[in-house]
User: Fold this.
Amino acid sequence: MAASYQPSKSDKFTFGLWTIGNPGRDPFGEPVRPPLKPHEIVKIVGELGGYGVNFHDNDLIPIDASASERDSILRDFKKALDDHGVCVPMATTNLFSDPIFRDGAFTSNDARVRAYALQKTMNAMDLGASLGAKTYVFWGGREGTEVDASKDPRDGIKHFRDALNFLCEYSNDQGYGLRFALEAKPNEPRGDIYFATTGNYLGFIETLDHPEMVGVNPEVAHETMAGLNFFHAVGQALEAGKLFHIDLNDQRPGRYDQDFRFGSESFKICFFLVKLLEDSGYEGPRHFDAHAYRTEDLEGVKAFAAGCMRTYLILKEKAERWNADKEIQDLLAAIKREDPELESLCRGYSAEKAKALKARAFDRKEICRHPLQYERLDQLTCEVIYGVR
Assistant:
């Protein structure tokens, strides 16, 4: 078992430029930390043992940067990546900050806005691919409404589908080999955002021209703020083969999008999330889409980033301990009642199987006498998390 919980490149821990570079601004307060340049953020990630950095197009290149400014920024950024052994696994486009997107990007009522959003995204895909990104995330932060009279949601869905179909073809035409990952959120900054949950997107993906290219990028905070079980959402994405990327942070249910340090609030959910990722063999980056408290200076930001990675490794070790705990595993074996004959009858319809099931006699009272012992199982799990087993 690990003793120091020090991250290595093989852990594939990544941070966004917008996370470590967050200046501590909120809707009620000005920044409390000076801005960091992209190459300075890369240096921090590399020195802490991180694997990669991700960015929105304008995290790296300001939206109104001149050609010379762009060249200078990219030169410094690429040098920092090389110097610190950091890669760029994922990129995305900012389609929510500029005033032109005040009523959406791909779902705007204005065809000029939708066309500009496509242009901006293609340029951002060019940038991401040139730096090695293999995953491209779409978060529709402004794709929604406050006034339902303003848009027919069917039109919004059609416009979004048209945009993704177009961009899939663009990626193929350029030979980028990108996989697209769609990120759900129920609200904020819009009153209601289209595709509020990971499940919404999993249904939508099957309506695209290239569903094989498109998966999801679920985020802890986004499902949790709506009172949903993030562990379940990730399980559904994994079972569907659609977990292309994941955003790790923490959140209290029913609050605004808090983006807390990973594992700082929901200990049990984060434990099962790490266990699920590790047990499933998920090979993608573990991306921390969080930011330090507004109380922190630069050293506090470094402590925040180190803490995200350390907590993941602690929970990974505890998941290994849970899997190896004989009492827990014996209890699970006792809880489950395997019956190969019944499982065969219930899997894959045939008229003969239906007839056999209808003829089967089930003793409901005897079945109910089988103890489930979930209280004991949950207590043992808590003791592993609390560090007493």
Remarks:
- The longest helix spans residues 298-324.
- DSSP finds 16 helices and ten strands in the chain.
- Residues 17 and 59 are 6 Å apart (CA to CA).
